[in-house]
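Researcher: For the annotation table, I need structure tokens for ATP-grasp domain-containing protein. Please keep the output clean. Sequence:
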Amino acid sequence: MIRSLLVANRAEIARRIARTCRDLGIATVAVHSDADADAPHAREADSAVRLPGDAPADTYLRGDLLVQAALATGADAVHPGYGFLSEHADFARAVRGAGLVWVGPPPEAMEAMASKTRAKEIMRKAGVPLLDPLDPAEVTVGDLPVLVKAAAGGGGRGMRVVRELAALPAELDSARAEAASAFGDGEIFVEPYMEGARHVEVQVLADTHGTVWTLGTRDCSLQRRHQKVIEEAPAPGLDEELRRTLAESAANAARAIGYEGAGTVEFLVSPSGRAYFLEMNTRLQVEHPVTEEIHGLDLVALQLRIAEGERLDAEPPAPRGHAIEARLYAEDPARDWRPQTGILHRLEIPGLRVDSGPDGGDAIGVHYDPMLAKVIAVAPTRAEAVRRLAHGLERARIHGPVTNRELLVRALRHPEFEAGRMDTGFLERHLPELTAPSDDDEAAPLAALAAALADAARRPATATVAGRLGGWRNVPSQSQLRSYRAEPGGIEHEVRYRLTRDGMLAEGFSDVRLPAAEPGWAAEPGRGAEPGRDAEPGRDAEPARVVLVVAGVRRTFEVTAYGDRRYVDTPRGGHVFTALPRFPDPTARTEPGSLLAPMPGTVVRVAEVAVGDRVEAGQPLLWLEAMKMEHRVTAPAAGVLTALHAAPGRQVEVGALLAVVAAGE
């Protein structure tokens, strides 16, 4: 029996595993980097061990330190979660060699699937359908498009879609470099890129007595940069013959390598309905909750019981209903998916299952994946589950860095997605419309007006409502003026309003007024932070409630302030603004042609350019790594490179000067 478990991971998955352990009466040991010293997964565990440093290579990827932590705390077993060392056979051997229980598959099974090229050879012998690889040196125009992939690792790292033959050599070199940096293995391979394909996977679970379960299908086609964003179970629109083929192929794959524990066999399904083996993940998947919800299972609990030697029943429980999961990321989809950092002041998504990493008040740093939470809805039908998830995300209160929340809501409500017609190119194809400014011309200006009124209500409590709003006189008076910049997007809103004997007049709004019956429209304005002073995260800022009557319809806005940021929450969605100063600093200028770091991160590569070289607009100059993603930084315009302030390994903050490109010859 396992009595104490070390979770060799962090954030959401560490909290997820610990939650099941508490239900089973198993003590938990957390590990944490210095950046995670006060993270929820470390706070909630029964004990926690520091891993000195911040970078994953110094902390969560140090198998020797993890084994030492388990032994020092008297743990019986180690659960690797997903990512980091979860698929490293040597780590599994080290855990077992220390006399600890490894909650995962045998190291030999992990090794068999670790290299995608070797995995495909094994699957071919097991009769699992495959896409034939291509020799990079023999790729022709007729083979295009092709996909360049890293043989080791995953998560979209080292993957490139190539549509032009002339671009193939450079993309091969780039993929090798990224794979070597991310996984310590630069091996890559090339295979046909299947346009319009779906990403469908099968959850497998195998005990140590020969029983293998296949737990239906999951569709994971909505992806950005080859990383999943929305997943659902069961995969919609598959006929029974295809479902049977997928289940049989997944079971054969597991048996071919003597698999034990939880794993996932992934397939590409062509538009014609043919399935091809993609890879096998020898660990728990990020999207495992949708399978749990429709089968009524706890996959982590089953992993632990299998590790203790228990038998599975002959057949798994039958699925019921439909479940769908969205990954909420701290990133800006409209700006090339740039990861975002800062304080997450508030995260509230009522009515849905939320598996989160950080809580309100926690900091989102630069060292790790930008995923904040997984949000899961379940219902009797797919249409109901999709509707519940979109509605819940729309009404969520998310105060902090920019997120992909709006993109998720729009994607879930897109006609193609609602009809189940999606593929791996969906987000790339529809990104402009999914990130475009809202076509509701009134929503953002109304939210800005609510923010202005809430700011007025935060004036000293001794003032009357009229006094807070600027007062009114028998003669016309100047309007009150406040300016806000919408985040993201940067659209500026000027709000002008004044109080008259007939009520509030707001410029630009022909039929907006304060409720006559509620002179105390913001009777509880809250203790929002003063401009220029940050609120204590998650505690100091209390929302002001603003009620407006718009064309006869009563609308309620909840406005929360943190420093100069204003978060306006409504039943129709949230808005974020930065309150702008009345007199901008005239010294805030940047030299023309300056290339500034778009995010905090580490310079991993610099192009073969030197000061004095001529560069073209869009030409890659360097690559930054931030939050487990590699970002290409390009020349802002054509011209001459007059300064270069970047070298591999350099840590940079957002806004740091990286290079200067002078226009002209």
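Researcher: And a one-line annotation?
Model: Residues 264 and 280 are 6 Å apart (CA to CA).
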